[in-house]
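User: Quick sanity check before I run a bigger batch. Here is a single chain. Can you write out its predicted 3D structure?
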Amino acid sequence: MTNQTWNADDYQKRAAYVAQLGKSLIELLQPQAEEEILDLGCGEGTLTLELMKSGANVRGIDADPSMISSAREKGVNAQLQSAIELDVESEFDAVFSNAALHWIRPPEQVVEGVYRALKPGGRFVAEFGGAGNVESARSALVSALEKRGHDSRQFDTWYFPTAEEYQCLLESYGFEVRNIELYSRPTPIGEQVTDWFRNFANNFLAALPESERHSFIEEVSEQVASGLQRDEQGYLLDYVRLRFVAVKS
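Assistant: Done. Predicted structure follows.
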C-alpha cells in the first residue's frame, strides 16, 4: 500500500493535466454502449465521466474518501475500495485505469483481481508511471530523506516497472498482452513546482513531523526546478509512462 493521501479540490486545481492527458487512453479502450466497465483508481471522476459518454455502464473505485466524495458529486457511481480488494468474478467487459497503478502495492494482487473481475475476452487498458518516471523528483526526495537520517525505502512506495517486467506479470496471471510500451512524456506541471510535491509526495512526507514538511518541500522543489526545462505552461517534469492493452484469455 501507500502513505499517499489526497485532497480532491487541490488535485483538480493543480493537477487537471492528469485527466486531460489521459483522454487518449479512452480512445485506446474504445468503450461501447451497454458495456460494463470498471474505472480502477477513478480519482475525482473526470475521466470516469468521459467513459460514461459512450453509453457504457461505468463504476469507479478509489481508496481515497476525498476523491470518492468528489466523484459522487459529479454523478459518478463511485465506491470506496482498494484495487487490491477486488472481489467480483467475470463482471466487467473492460477495466480501465489512468495514473493509478503506480500507487498500488502489491501489483500482483491488482493484476490477479482485475483478471478475475473481467469476463472472458475482457480487456485491461491502463497507463501509469513506468521505469524512470519522475526520476529527478524521486532522487531529490530520497536524498533529502536520507540526509535527515530516514530510510527512504520505507517511504518510497512508488511502483515504476519496465515494460518487460509488467508484461511478464500480466502473462503470469493469464493475460494476453496485445501491446505494451514505455515512453517518455515530459509533462507541464505549472509554475509552482511546490504544488507538484504537495500533491504527489505525501508518501515521503509521512517520514517527517508536520513542522518540517514545509521546509522539506521547499528544499526539494528548489533543487528539482533548477534542472527542469520549461515551456509556455511552466516547468516540464520527466514523466515516463507505461501503457498497455491486455485481454483475458
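The two ends are 28 Å apart (CA to CA).

User: Great, the batch can go ahead then.
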